Protein backbone atom coordinates (compact mmCIF):
# COMPACT_ATOMS: atom_id res chain seq x y z
CA UNK A 1 0.00 0.00 0.00
CA UNK A 2 1.12 3.55 -0.55
CA UNK A 3 1.00 4.23 3.17
CA UNK A 4 3.81 1.72 3.74
CA UNK A 5 6.26 3.67 1.65
CA UNK A 6 5.79 6.64 3.94
CA UNK A 7 7.21 4.82 6.95
CA UNK A 8 10.77 5.29 5.70
CA UNK A 9 10.12 9.01 5.46
CA UNK A 10 8.53 9.08 8.92
CA UNK A 11 11.48 7.41 10.61
CA UNK A 12 13.86 9.97 9.09
CA UNK A 13 11.43 12.80 9.61
CA UNK A 14 10.67 12.52 13.31
CA UNK A 15 14.33 12.66 14.31
CA UNK A 16 14.49 16.13 12.85
CA UNK A 17 11.00 17.34 13.64
CA UNK A 18 12.04 19.30 16.69
CA UNK A 19 14.26 21.43 14.45
CA UNK A 20 11.40 22.38 12.16
CA UNK A 21 9.49 25.62 12.50
CA UNK A 22 6.86 27.25 10.38
CA UNK A 23 8.35 30.56 9.30
CA UNK A 24 6.82 33.70 10.74
CA UNK A 25 5.80 34.76 7.25
CA UNK A 26 3.68 31.62 7.01
CA UNK A 27 1.62 32.58 10.08
CA UNK A 28 -1.46 34.60 9.33
CA UNK A 29 -0.97 38.03 10.84
CA UNK A 30 -3.65 38.96 13.37
CA UNK A 31 -3.79 41.83 15.80
CA UNK A 32 -3.33 40.59 19.35
CA UNK A 33 -6.00 41.76 21.82
CA UNK A 34 -4.85 43.69 24.86
CA UNK A 35 -4.92 42.09 28.30
CA UNK A 36 -3.48 38.95 29.82
CA UNK A 37 -4.10 35.26 29.22
CA UNK A 38 -7.08 34.06 31.23
CA UNK A 39 -8.89 37.42 31.14
CA UNK A 40 -12.65 37.28 30.58
CA UNK A 41 -13.85 39.54 27.76
CA UNK A 42 -17.56 38.64 27.61
CA UNK A 43 -20.15 36.36 29.17
CA UNK A 44 -23.72 35.38 28.35
CA UNK A 45 -26.20 32.74 29.45
CA UNK A 46 -26.23 29.50 27.49
CA UNK A 47 -29.52 28.64 25.77
CA UNK A 48 -31.43 25.99 27.72
CA UNK A 49 -30.91 23.52 24.87
CA UNK A 50 -27.12 23.89 25.18
CA UNK A 51 -26.71 23.24 28.90
CA UNK A 52 -26.70 19.96 30.87
CA UNK A 53 -29.66 18.31 32.62
CA UNK A 54 -30.39 19.61 36.13
CA UNK A 55 -27.65 22.24 35.84
CA UNK A 56 -27.59 25.57 37.63
CA UNK A 57 -25.97 28.67 36.16
CA UNK A 58 -24.76 28.03 32.59
CA UNK A 59 -22.62 30.47 30.64
CA UNK A 60 -20.83 30.90 27.34
CA UNK A 61 -17.72 32.96 27.99
CA UNK A 62 -15.09 34.54 25.76
CA UNK A 63 -11.61 34.95 27.20
CA UNK A 64 -8.05 35.64 26.11
CA UNK A 65 -5.56 32.83 25.65
CA UNK A 66 -1.95 32.73 24.52
CA UNK A 67 -1.75 31.96 20.81
CA UNK A 68 -0.61 28.35 20.91
CA UNK A 69 0.59 28.40 17.30
CA UNK A 70 3.19 31.09 17.87
CA UNK A 71 3.57 30.77 21.65
CA UNK A 72 3.07 34.51 22.06
CA UNK A 73 0.35 37.10 21.64
CA UNK A 74 -3.28 36.63 22.59
CA UNK A 75 -6.34 35.27 20.82
CA UNK A 76 -10.01 35.16 21.86
CA UNK A 77 -11.36 31.71 22.75
CA UNK A 78 -14.85 30.64 23.82
CA UNK A 79 -15.90 28.14 26.48
CA UNK A 80 -18.89 26.80 28.39
CA UNK A 81 -19.10 27.14 32.17
CA UNK A 82 -21.85 25.02 33.74
CA UNK A 83 -22.43 24.85 37.49
CA UNK A 84 -24.47 22.25 39.36
CA UNK A 85 -27.83 23.37 40.68
CA UNK A 86 -28.13 24.50 44.28
CA UNK A 87 -25.85 26.15 46.77
CA UNK A 88 -22.14 25.54 46.20
CA UNK A 89 -20.21 23.68 48.89
CA UNK A 90 -17.86 25.50 51.23
CA UNK A 91 -15.02 26.84 49.11
CA UNK A 92 -16.98 26.41 45.88
CA UNK A 93 -17.52 23.67 43.30
CA UNK A 94 -14.38 21.84 42.15
CA UNK A 95 -13.91 21.94 38.40
CA UNK A 96 -13.86 19.43 35.57
CA UNK A 97 -11.74 21.11 32.90
CA UNK A 98 -13.34 19.40 29.90
CA UNK A 99 -11.38 18.84 26.68
CA UNK A 100 -13.77 17.84 23.90
CA UNK A 101 -13.15 15.31 21.17
CA UNK A 102 -13.11 15.95 17.43
CA UNK A 103 -16.01 18.07 16.20
CA UNK A 104 -14.49 19.57 13.05
CA UNK A 105 -12.58 22.75 12.22
CA UNK A 106 -15.48 25.01 11.13
CA UNK A 107 -16.86 27.62 13.54
CA UNK A 108 -20.34 26.12 13.37
CA UNK A 109 -18.96 22.90 14.87
CA UNK A 110 -17.81 24.59 18.11
CA UNK A 111 -19.32 22.79 21.12
CA UNK A 112 -20.66 25.99 22.69
CA UNK A 113 -22.64 26.61 19.48
CA UNK A 114 -24.38 23.24 19.71
CA UNK A 115 -26.34 21.03 22.11
CA UNK A 116 -24.36 18.28 23.85
CA UNK A 117 -24.31 14.87 22.19
CA UNK A 118 -26.25 12.18 24.06
CA UNK A 119 -22.97 10.49 25.00
CA UNK A 120 -21.31 13.61 26.39
CA UNK A 121 -24.51 14.76 28.08
CA UNK A 122 -24.65 11.52 30.05
CA UNK A 123 -20.92 11.56 30.77
CA UNK A 124 -20.66 15.13 32.03
CA UNK A 125 -23.94 14.88 33.95
CA UNK A 126 -22.32 12.09 35.96
CA UNK A 127 -19.39 14.36 36.74
CA UNK A 128 -21.83 17.03 37.91
CA UNK A 129 -23.52 14.47 40.15
CA UNK A 130 -20.10 13.94 41.71
CA UNK A 131 -20.17 17.62 42.65
CA UNK A 132 -18.09 19.17 39.86
CA UNK A 133 -18.72 22.24 37.74
CA UNK A 134 -17.76 21.95 34.06
CA UNK A 135 -15.47 24.40 32.23
CA UNK A 136 -15.16 23.30 28.60
CA UNK A 137 -13.06 25.20 26.07
CA UNK A 138 -13.94 25.29 22.37
CA UNK A 139 -10.22 25.59 21.40
CA UNK A 140 -8.60 28.35 19.37
CA UNK A 141 -10.25 28.93 15.98
CA UNK A 142 -13.50 27.11 16.82
CA UNK A 143 -16.18 29.78 17.02
CA UNK A 144 -13.54 32.53 16.89
CA UNK A 145 -11.30 33.99 14.18
CA UNK A 146 -8.81 31.84 12.29
CA UNK A 147 -8.63 28.15 11.40
CA UNK A 148 -8.64 25.67 14.28
CA UNK A 149 -5.11 24.15 14.45
CA UNK A 150 -6.41 20.62 14.94
CA UNK A 151 -4.47 18.31 17.31
CA UNK A 152 -1.97 21.05 18.20
CA UNK A 153 -1.24 20.10 21.80
CA UNK A 154 0.13 23.48 22.86
CA UNK A 155 -2.96 25.25 21.51
CA UNK A 156 -5.27 22.84 23.31
CA UNK A 157 -3.38 23.06 26.59
CA UNK A 158 -3.14 26.85 26.66
CA UNK A 159 -6.83 27.16 25.81
CA UNK A 160 -7.97 24.71 28.47
CA UNK A 161 -5.78 26.19 31.20
CA UNK A 162 -6.66 29.80 30.35
CA UNK A 163 -10.36 28.90 30.27
CA UNK A 164 -10.13 27.61 33.84
CA UNK A 165 -8.26 30.76 34.89
CA UNK A 166 -10.98 32.95 33.34
CA UNK A 167 -13.78 30.98 35.01
CA UNK A 168 -12.12 31.05 38.44
CA UNK A 169 -11.56 34.79 38.21
CA UNK A 170 -15.04 35.72 37.02
CA UNK A 171 -17.66 33.11 37.98
CA UNK A 172 -18.66 32.95 41.67
CA UNK A 173 -18.99 29.54 43.31
CA UNK A 174 -15.94 27.83 41.80
CA UNK A 175 -12.99 26.34 43.64
CA UNK A 176 -9.37 26.03 42.47
CA UNK A 177 -9.44 22.23 42.68
CA UNK A 178 -9.33 20.74 39.20
CA UNK A 179 -9.70 17.45 37.37
CA UNK A 180 -8.63 17.61 33.71
CA UNK A 181 -10.91 15.33 31.68
CA UNK A 182 -11.00 14.62 27.94
CA UNK A 183 -11.96 12.19 25.19
CA UNK A 184 -10.24 11.41 21.85
CA UNK A 185 -8.77 14.71 20.60
CA UNK A 186 -9.64 15.89 24.09
CA UNK A 187 -7.86 12.91 25.65
CA UNK A 188 -4.68 14.15 24.03
CA UNK A 189 -5.56 17.72 25.01
CA UNK A 190 -6.08 16.60 28.61
CA UNK A 191 -2.66 14.92 28.72
CA UNK A 192 -1.06 17.97 27.10
CA UNK A 193 -2.75 20.34 29.54
CA UNK A 194 -1.43 18.38 32.51
CA UNK A 195 2.02 18.35 30.89
CA UNK A 196 2.11 22.12 30.22
CA UNK A 197 0.45 23.16 33.50
CA UNK A 198 3.49 23.20 35.85
CA UNK A 199 5.22 25.82 33.71
CA UNK A 200 2.28 27.58 32.03
CA UNK A 201 -0.29 27.65 34.85
CA UNK A 202 1.41 26.70 38.15
CA UNK A 203 -1.28 28.56 40.10
CA UNK A 204 -3.91 25.97 39.11
CA UNK A 205 -4.48 23.21 41.67
CA UNK A 206 -4.73 20.21 39.37
CA UNK A 207 -5.43 16.94 41.18
CA UNK A 208 -5.46 14.42 38.33
CA UNK A 209 -6.23 13.73 34.67
CA UNK A 210 -8.82 11.39 33.13
CA UNK A 211 -8.41 10.62 29.42
CA UNK A 212 -10.19 8.17 27.13
CA UNK A 213 -9.27 7.41 23.52
CA UNK A 214 -6.11 9.53 23.77
CA UNK A 215 -3.75 9.62 20.72
CA UNK A 216 0.04 9.23 20.83
CA UNK A 217 2.26 9.09 17.74
CA UNK A 218 5.81 7.75 17.33
CA UNK A 219 7.60 6.36 14.25
CA UNK A 220 7.27 2.83 15.63
CA UNK A 221 3.55 3.19 16.24
CA UNK A 222 3.02 4.70 12.79
CA UNK A 223 4.81 1.71 11.32
CA UNK A 224 2.53 -0.60 13.30
CA UNK A 225 -0.54 1.08 11.87
CA UNK A 226 0.95 1.16 8.38
CA UNK A 227 1.52 -2.58 8.32
CA UNK A 228 -2.00 -3.39 9.50
CA UNK A 229 -4.46 -4.63 6.84
CA UNK A 230 -6.14 -1.74 5.03
CA UNK A 231 -8.80 -3.52 2.99
CA UNK A 232 -11.84 -2.03 4.75
CA UNK A 233 -14.23 -0.01 2.56
CA UNK A 234 -13.13 3.11 4.44
CA UNK A 235 -10.82 4.07 7.30
CA UNK A 236 -12.19 6.42 10.01
CA UNK A 237 -8.66 7.68 10.73
CA UNK A 238 -8.86 9.45 7.35
CA UNK A 239 -11.37 11.87 8.90
CA UNK A 240 -8.75 13.02 11.39
CA UNK A 241 -6.03 13.17 8.75
CA UNK A 242 -8.18 15.49 6.64
CA UNK A 243 -8.78 17.78 9.62
CA UNK A 244 -5.08 17.70 10.51
CA UNK A 245 -4.23 18.96 7.02
CA UNK A 246 -6.96 21.62 7.12
CA UNK A 247 -5.61 22.85 10.45
CA UNK A 248 -2.10 23.07 9.05
CA UNK A 249 -3.34 25.05 6.06
CA UNK A 250 -4.56 27.75 8.44
CA UNK A 251 -1.07 28.71 9.63
CA UNK A 252 1.35 27.33 7.02
CA UNK A 253 0.64 29.24 3.83
CA UNK A 254 3.14 27.12 1.94
CA UNK A 255 1.21 23.91 2.62
CA UNK A 256 0.04 22.16 -0.54
CA UNK A 257 -2.70 19.58 0.09
CA UNK A 258 -1.96 17.93 -3.26
CA UNK A 259 1.37 16.84 -1.78
CA UNK A 260 -0.48 14.80 0.84
CA UNK A 261 -3.70 13.58 -0.77
CA UNK A 262 -4.50 11.75 -3.97
CA UNK A 263 -7.01 13.10 -6.47
CA UNK A 264 -9.54 10.68 -5.00
CA UNK A 265 -9.22 12.28 -1.55
CA UNK A 266 -9.05 15.94 -2.57
CA UNK A 267 -12.85 16.53 -2.66
CA UNK A 268 -13.06 15.31 0.95
CA UNK A 269 -10.10 17.53 1.91
CA UNK A 270 -11.83 20.60 0.50
CA UNK A 271 -15.12 19.63 2.18
CA UNK A 272 -13.41 19.14 5.57
CA UNK A 273 -13.09 22.91 6.04
CA UNK A 274 -16.87 23.21 6.43
CA UNK A 275 -18.15 19.78 7.52
CA UNK A 276 -18.53 18.76 11.16
CA UNK A 277 -17.26 15.35 12.17
CA UNK A 278 -20.34 13.21 11.46
CA UNK A 279 -20.81 14.89 8.07
CA UNK A 280 -17.17 14.37 7.12
CA UNK A 281 -17.34 10.75 8.29
CA UNK A 282 -20.26 10.23 5.91
CA UNK A 283 -18.20 11.83 3.11
CA UNK A 284 -15.21 9.56 3.80
CA UNK A 285 -17.51 6.53 3.78
CA UNK A 286 -19.25 7.65 0.58
CA UNK A 287 -15.92 8.22 -1.19
CA UNK A 288 -14.44 4.96 0.15
CA UNK A 289 -11.27 6.59 1.50
CA UNK A 290 -8.53 4.64 3.23
CA UNK A 291 -4.79 5.05 3.63
CA UNK A 292 -3.83 3.19 0.48
CA UNK A 293 -6.07 5.13 -1.91
CA UNK A 294 -5.93 8.54 -0.24
CA UNK A 295 -2.38 9.33 0.90
CA UNK A 296 0.67 10.00 -1.25
CA UNK A 297 4.02 8.39 -0.37
CA UNK A 298 5.49 11.61 1.07
CA UNK A 299 2.38 12.55 3.06
CA UNK A 300 4.20 12.47 6.44
CA UNK A 301 7.01 14.67 5.18
CA UNK A 302 4.51 17.24 3.95
CA UNK A 303 2.49 17.12 7.18
CA UNK A 304 5.65 17.52 9.27
CA UNK A 305 4.73 20.75 11.11
CA UNK A 306 1.33 19.33 12.09
CA UNK A 307 2.89 16.05 13.26
CA UNK A 308 5.41 17.97 15.33
CA UNK A 309 2.61 20.02 16.89
CA UNK A 310 0.97 16.78 18.09
CA UNK A 311 3.91 15.96 20.37
CA UNK A 312 3.64 16.30 24.15
CA UNK A 313 6.21 18.51 25.92
CA UNK A 314 6.89 15.79 28.50
CA UNK A 315 5.61 12.31 29.30
CA UNK A 316 6.00 12.89 33.03
CA UNK A 317 2.88 14.34 34.64
CA UNK A 318 2.98 15.84 38.11
CA UNK A 319 -0.38 14.26 39.02
CA UNK A 320 -1.86 10.78 38.47
CA UNK A 321 -3.31 9.84 35.08
CA UNK A 322 -6.32 7.64 34.29
CA UNK A 323 -6.38 6.18 30.77
CA UNK A 324 -9.39 4.34 29.33
CA UNK A 325 -9.07 2.42 26.04
CA UNK A 326 -11.70 0.55 24.04
CA UNK A 327 -10.36 -2.83 22.91
CA UNK A 328 -12.09 -2.38 19.52
CA UNK A 329 -11.35 1.32 19.00
CA UNK A 330 -11.07 2.00 15.25
CA UNK A 331 -10.74 5.80 15.55
CA UNK A 332 -7.65 5.94 17.77
CA UNK A 333 -6.17 2.45 17.31
CA UNK A 334 -5.33 0.80 20.67
CA UNK A 335 -1.57 0.53 19.89
CA UNK A 336 -1.41 4.34 19.96
CA UNK A 337 -3.11 4.43 23.35
CA UNK A 338 -1.01 1.59 24.76
CA UNK A 339 2.05 3.49 23.56
CA UNK A 340 0.96 6.51 25.60
CA UNK A 341 0.55 4.35 28.70
CA UNK A 342 3.96 2.75 28.21
CA UNK A 343 5.74 6.08 27.61
CA UNK A 344 4.05 7.83 30.54
CA UNK A 345 4.78 4.94 32.90
CA UNK A 346 8.42 4.84 31.78
CA UNK A 347 8.70 8.58 32.46
CA UNK A 348 7.52 8.13 36.04
CA UNK A 349 3.88 9.23 35.72
CA UNK A 350 1.49 7.41 38.06
CA UNK A 351 -0.78 5.79 35.47
CA UNK A 352 -3.92 3.78 36.06
CA UNK A 353 -4.83 2.24 32.69
CA UNK A 354 -7.99 0.32 31.82
CA UNK A 355 -8.92 -1.57 28.64
CA UNK A 356 -12.61 -2.20 28.04
CA UNK A 357 -13.27 -5.54 26.38
CA UNK A 358 -15.32 -5.49 23.18
CA UNK A 359 -15.95 -1.75 23.27
CA UNK A 360 -15.29 0.86 20.60
CA UNK A 361 -14.16 4.49 20.74
CA UNK A 362 -17.54 5.94 21.73
CA UNK A 363 -18.70 3.15 24.04
CA UNK A 364 -15.61 3.44 26.21
CA UNK A 365 -16.44 6.97 27.38
CA UNK A 366 -19.37 6.09 29.63
CA UNK A 367 -18.15 2.57 30.36
CA UNK A 368 -15.16 4.13 32.09
CA UNK A 369 -17.28 6.13 34.55
CA UNK A 370 -17.23 3.68 37.50
CA UNK A 371 -13.45 3.28 37.30
CA UNK A 372 -12.81 7.00 36.90
CA UNK A 373 -15.10 7.69 39.87
CA UNK A 374 -12.88 5.60 42.14
CA UNK A 375 -9.74 7.19 40.68
CA UNK A 376 -11.17 10.69 41.15
CA UNK A 377 -12.16 10.04 44.75
CA UNK A 378 -8.60 8.93 45.47
CA UNK A 379 -6.84 11.90 43.88
CA UNK A 380 -9.27 14.48 45.23
CA UNK A 381 -8.80 13.19 48.78
CA UNK A 382 -5.03 12.79 48.49
CA UNK A 383 -5.01 8.99 48.64
CA UNK A 384 -2.36 6.89 46.94
CA UNK A 385 -3.43 5.74 43.46
CA UNK A 386 -2.70 2.14 42.56
CA UNK A 387 -0.79 2.21 39.26
CA UNK A 388 -1.65 -0.13 36.40
CA UNK A 389 0.71 0.03 33.42
CA UNK A 390 -0.10 -3.34 31.80
CA UNK A 391 -3.89 -3.53 31.72
CA UNK A 392 -5.81 -6.55 30.46
CA UNK A 393 -9.24 -6.23 28.83
CA UNK A 394 -11.93 -6.11 31.50
UniProtKB/TrEMBL annotation:
<dbReference type="InterPro" id="IPR005152">
    <property type="entry name" value="Lipase_secreted"/>
</dbReference>
<feature type="signal peptide">
    <location>
        <begin position="1"/>
        <end position="28"/>
    </location>
</feature>
<dbReference type="Pfam" id="PF03583">
    <property type="entry name" value="LIP"/>
</dbReference>
<dbReference type="GO" id="GO:0004806">
    <property type="term" value="F:triacylglycerol lipase activity"/>
</dbReference>
<dbReference type="GO" id="GO:0016042">
    <property type="term" value="P:lipid catabolic process"/>
</dbReference>
<dbReference type="InterPro" id="IPR029058">
    <property type="entry name" value="AB_hydrolase_fold"/>
</dbReference>
<keyword id="KW-0732">Signal</keyword>
<protein>
    <submittedName>
        <fullName>Signal peptide-containing protein</fullName>
    </submittedName>
</protein>
Amino acid sequence: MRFLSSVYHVSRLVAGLCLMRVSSSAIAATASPSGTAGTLTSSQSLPDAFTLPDAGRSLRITYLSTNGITGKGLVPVTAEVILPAGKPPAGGWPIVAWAHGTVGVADRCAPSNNPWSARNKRYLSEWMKRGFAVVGTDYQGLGTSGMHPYLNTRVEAYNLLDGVKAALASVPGLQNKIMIVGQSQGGGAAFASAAFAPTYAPELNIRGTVATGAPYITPELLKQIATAPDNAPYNPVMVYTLYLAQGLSGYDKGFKPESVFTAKAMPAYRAAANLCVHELTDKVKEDGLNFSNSLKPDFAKNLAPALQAMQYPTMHLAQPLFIGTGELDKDVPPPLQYGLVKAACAAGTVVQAHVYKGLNHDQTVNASLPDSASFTQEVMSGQVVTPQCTPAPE
